[in-house]
Every structure is written in structure tokens, then in C-alpha cells.
Amino acid sequence: MKIIRSPREMQVFAESERLRGLRIVLVPTMGYFHEGHLNLMREGRKRGDCLAVSIYVNPAQFAPTEDFESYPRDFERDRKLAEEVGVDVIFSPDNSEMYPEGYQTYVEVEGVTGNLCGISRPRFFRGVATVCAKLFHIVKPHVAVFGKKDFQQLVTIKRMVRDLNMDIEILGVSTTRESDGLAMSSRNVYLTAEERGSALSLSRALRIANDRYEKGERDAALILQQVREFISAHPSARIDYAKICDAETIKDVRKIEGEAVLALAVWIGKTRLIDNHLFGEPLDV
């Protein structure tokens, strides 16, 4: 397994793989791998010949008050896990390589970023779109694999790729969960034992909403009322948002008619967790 730090070296390597007729698959990550990351890599392994993983905690998507400095990092552990899964190359650049002095170019995706995390984290999607565009140009993948847990992010990247005519397939993979239903996240390590119990309110709220949907309820407000009441009853839980949105436009819906997603962002103590469910799809919680 190769480890590459320089964007130029990564581009040269990627171009040589393409010239050999190999299909490159990229799994973009911020590192501190859990089973969810590894499942993305396993899915990526099936989709091409050269599996690349980026490890980069992107400062452009963090606000000054957020956890950029404290975000968990362990490159050596990540390296071993990636090698065990069969990754061919890790691209892990420094900030000075990705945002050199004088950097001033950013990608902004409008519309689909205006709701949910776009309200509470207003600089987040500009940073995500920018770093993904850079990674796509550096790693030159035919396919990029993302988790559906970050649903709005997935929609945003698909929109950017479509709008900018990028020659790349974007693949979304189902959320990987702990045995108790908690969506896997690198930030789960922040939770205390008591907070973890409250964190389960997210996945259980999804189940409550899905049960109402399967029984024929289509009024978004009625479903959301029950979801919010359930989550708010848990200690340390503070709802950032709980909304039902159109799955393509990410606009709020009053009635569930087409494809719709229930999206949650909840503060459990000092940790902000997200989860979601696309109505009509199986829910394994």
C-alpha cells in the first residue's frame, strides 16, 4: 500500500493507473476509521481496480467554534485498518499543500445546502464541496464512495458533479450502525456512558417515524411532533433540527408524497450527532 502526501505525486500516480486502463475508486475521509469507513472501502474495492482513500481533516468546513483542533486523529491506526481492507493508496496531504498561502478559490453549491446543516453550519458545505472538487482533480477517480449518514452532503456532492459536468460516478452506501442502532461516527468517542444512552434517541426516533409512515401517516408535522417529543425527553439531548425534506431538493415538505428523508441533528451534551432515514427504504434499527 502506497502513502502519498503530495497532490502532484498523487496526480502522477493516478494518471499512470488510468493509462494502464485501471479503474480508480476514491473513498474520501477525515480519518479515525470506524466500521462505517471500512464498509465504504469494502464497497469501493468491488467497484474498481485501484482503491484510494484520502485522509484529510479539512479546515475549510469547520467554523472557528467547532472541533477542528480536537477532531480525533490516529494515522497509524488508520493505515493498518486500510491495509487490512485492501486499500492500494492513501492520500494524506498537509494543509499547506491543499490550501497554500494566497489560496482564494472555493466551490459553492446553492439550493440543496440552504436547509438543515446549511443553517446551523453555514460554512460547512462550501468547505466540503471545495475539498471534494480538489480531491477529484488530484486522485482522478472514476467512482467516489460516500456514506448516506451524511445525506445532505451526498446530495450536495451529486449536485456539484452534475452541475459542473464532472466525469465521475458518486455512490452512496447505507449507514453502518452499532449493535444498539447508534449510527457510527468518529465523534461517538466524545460521548460519556450516560450520553450514549441519550444518543440512541436518534435511531429510535427514526424507527418511531418509520412505523407511523408504514401505518399510512403522511402528515410531516404529526410525525415530527412525535419525533421531537421523544428525543427531547432524553437527558442531555438538544435538537438542532428534526425535519422531513424532499430527498432531492432538501426543501421541507408538509406531506410525504415523493421521496422524502427524515433528517436529524441533535446535540448530546457537547457532541453534535446526525442521522436520517429515507422513507420507503428498509430501516435496520
Summarize the structure in words.
By secondary structure, this protein is an alpha/beta fold. It has two domains: 2-173, 3-Layer(aba) Sandwich (Rossmann fold), CATH 3.40.50.620; 186-278, Pantoate-beta-alanine ligase, C-terminal domain (Pantoate--beta-alanine Ligase, Chain: A,domain 2), CATH 3.30.1300.10. It is built from nine helices and nine strands. It has helices at residues 7-19, 35-47, 75-85, 95-98, 117-120, 124-139, 151-163, 193-214, 220-232, and strands at 2-4, 24-29, 50-55, 89-91, 143-147, 169-173, 237-246, 260-268, 271-278. The strands form two sheets. The protein has a six-stranded parallel beta sheet with strand order 1-4-3-2-5-6, sandwiched between helices. Strands 7-8-9 form a three-stranded antiparallel beta sheet, covered by helices on one side. The model has no long low-confidence stretch (mean pLDDT 97).
Quick one: CATH superfamily of the largest domain? HUPs
SS class = alpha/beta
The biggest sheet, with number of strands, parallel, antiparallel or mixed sense and barrel status, is:
6 strands, parallel
Trace the largest sheet across and list its strands: 1-4-3-2-5-6
Quaternary organisation of the protein chains: single chain
